[in-house]
Design goal:
Elements lengths: L3 H21 L1 H10 L7 H11 L8 H6 L4 E5 L2 E4 L1 H13 L7 H19 L5 H12 L4 H18 L5 H17 L8 H15 L6 H5 L2 E3 L2 E3 L9 H11 L13 E15 L11 E21 L4 E8 L2 E5 L16 E5 L2 E4 L5 H10 L26 H15 L3 E2 L3 H9 L59 E7 L23 E4 L15 E4 L8 E2 L3 E2 L7
Parallel strand pairs: 12-15
Antiparallel strand pairs: 1-2, 3-4, 5-6, 6-7, 7-10, 8-9, 10-16, 11-16, 12-13, 13-14
Helix pairs in contact: 1-2, 1-5, 2-5, 3-6, 6-7, 8-9, 9-10
Length: 560
């Protein structure tokens, strides 16, 4: 039985595929079919599949279009994964599509296995885990004996991982194996014990309070292997507390948006394009140009009407659930120590405002919605404009805005947790900015008289710009995540991530006067202060013309 989130993703998978086909054409769908069988995608693998099966039917640029589309998300450097529900839907459709030979899945599996064997010889250690996953995906389609061997190897890996390595390493490996097993569930119908054990592992990370002591300690046998959750997980109050804090954000029976609609946007990335000039007699150094590349993307959103007659509404974008590495690596330029240690965080799906709250949105809530806890100044901003973000609002002001909105709509609106903010900003990227390794004043509003990581110089606009002024978004459809205004988060300030939650919930303390977290940088700040991982803070009653906010809404897992 699917949980609500999985059911939601299953329902919108056909819409995502239809939108992809409408944008690129039927032949692109054929490439998506073939790319659905591997569990992990790389540019070279997609190229290999296209040249093996679709060379005369699908153009070369389709390879990048697929990886950068809404069907896939980036999970590492040049590593991509297709959405689970989308992958399952494509494989199901591939089996029935008259344009696809009946034995094509078997042929793709054979090609994938050959690809894995070739890379295993070429990179015996460097890509071991990636190739292991690819090998299992291929074995699932190569007959009963190969499928039995795959199930046996996964069970053996579970068994071997239970008592080895650090607690964090064991959790990471169990999560990885559980994800792989659930991806391959349709091919593992003959091994229900393995599938059920993987689902139990998933519950440990998502909802441990639903597991009884007997379930936590239960032993499952798969072939000759004895599978059991590690003993230290049997009584883990920390997991229960963290999950409870997240659960309290979703009130039982609260109103939910009735549907999500697709929308399209442009994603920009900035990349280095080095060329060596002709040297003069005195000698002339190489120059580096930065090229902005544009790519059409699509996602889903919900429009919350505030004043329909005045064209005032909230544009809430669906952010998929998943995991990411929060913080910055030690070699990232201009990083601060408070961005350490990097740590894995799991995030539930939610809805986030596509842009910071604008002055008309603020004014309507401040003047037309009843007070909940405190008064709101209708026009606090230094820089005036109907398309400009509201600024000079305190943390308490932002919380009051959310409280009024929640009371008015029947939905839970709130500030994002710091983890949710960074996860949404990155949108699957691991670079300093979701644009790439640097940033440009053509992409965001910041003090571009300063440069970052050898990036281009630009202007300092000395004020806020209209939201979505640059008409670029990240891969999930969010605009203005870098620069323009700092954005309030729920969290109380902590000097580093030692002891931080790993479930995406806000990190709070008992001190209500503690400083609150700000994210994203602003028009006044240097580019390094606008990175995805940059953290800043101010006191909750503080106001400044650098500070605004955006809001989030309850998880879309209950949407129909």
């Amino acid at each position: 039985m699917l949980d609500p989130q999985q059911e939601f993703e299953r329902q919108i998978a056909p819409q995502k595929v239809a939108l992809f086909e409408r944008q690129f054409g039927k032949n692109y769908r054929l490439l998506a079919y073939h790319a659905a069988l591997p569990l992990v995608l790389t540019p070279e693998l997609v190229h290999y599949l296209r040249t093996q099966f679709l060379l005369d039917r699908v153009p070369w640029e389709a390879e990048a279009d697929l990886l950068l589309s809404g069907l896939c998300s980036q999970v590492g450097y040049e590593l991509y994964a297709m959405n689970t529900a989308v992958r399952s839907y494509l494989l199901e459709q591939m089996a029935w599509d008259a344009c696809i030979p009946s034995d094509r899945m078997y042929e793709v599996a054979q090609v994938l296995m050959s690809y894995v064997m070739y890379l295993s010889r070429l990179h015996p250690k460097h890509r071991e885990r990636e190739l292991q996953v690819q090998r299992w995906a291929a074995m699932a389609y190569l007959g009963d004996e190969q499928c039995r061997q795959m199930a046996d190897e996964i069970a053996q890996q579970f068994e071997a991982s239970a008592g080895h390595g650090s607690s964090t390493a064991v959790k990471a490996e169990f999560a990885r194996l559980a994800k792989i097993t659930q991806e391959l569930e349709p091919q593992l119908q003959a091994y229900p014990e393995l599938v059920e054990f993987a689902k139990r592992v998933g519950k440990v990370f998502r909802s441990p309070e639903t597991l009884t002591t007997e379930e936590l300690q239960q032993v499952v046998r798969v072939g000759d292997h004895r599978l059991q959750l590690p003993r230290e997980w049997w009584n883990n109050p920390e997991l229960k507390v963290l999950t409870f804090r997240t659960a309290t954000l979703r009130a039982e029976g609260e109103a939910q948006p009735t549907d999500l609609q697709p929308f399209e946007f442009v994603v920009a990335t900035i990349q280095r394009n080095s060329t060596q000039r002709q040297r003069s007699r005195k000698g002339q150094p190489a120059t580096t140009d930065w090229v902005i590349q544009r790519q059409n993307h699509s996602a889903y959103h919900f429009l919350e009407p505030l004043a329909p007659n005045e064209d005032i509404f909230l544009d809430m974008v669906a952010i998929p659930g998943g995991g990411f590495l929060m913080g910055s690596p030690e070699n990232e330029p201009d990083r601060f120590s408070d961005e350490s240690p990097q740590h894995d965080v799991t995030i539930e799906p939610f809805l986030m405002a596509r842009t910071p709250i604008t002055q008309p949105q603020w004014r309507f809530v401040a003047t037309q919605m009843p007070q909940v806890n405190g008064e709101l100044t209708p026009d606090p901003s230094r820089f005036k404009g109907e398309s400009l973000p509201v600024e000079r609002v305190s943390w308490y002001d932002a919380v009051e805005f959310c409280a009024r909105l929640s009371a008015h709509t029947g939905r839970t609106y709130r500030l994002p947790s710091e983890a949710e903010w960074e996860y949404a900003c990155r949108a699957g990227t691991t670079t300093p900015f979701h644009f790439g390794e640097t940033i440009s004043s053509e992409l965001a509003n910041y003090d571009a008289t300063k440069t970052y990581n050898g990036g281009p110089k630009g202007e300092s606009r000395q004020k806020t710009t209209p939201v979505d002024h640059f008409e670029f978004a990240n891969a999930w459809g969010l605009s203005d995540m870098h620069g323009n205004v700092w954005e309030w988060c729920q969290d109380h300030w902590h000097d580093n991530y030692e002891g931080a939650p790993t479930d995406g919930s806000a990190w709070l303390s008992d001190n209500e006067d503690a400083a609150r977290v700000l994210r994203g940088g602003s028009w006044y700040y240097d580019p390094g202060d606008c990175r995805s991982a940059t953290r800043f803070n101010d006191f909750p009653r503080g106001t400044n013309f650098n500070i605004g906010f955006r809001i989030v809404c309850s998880s879309p897992r209950a949407l129909s």
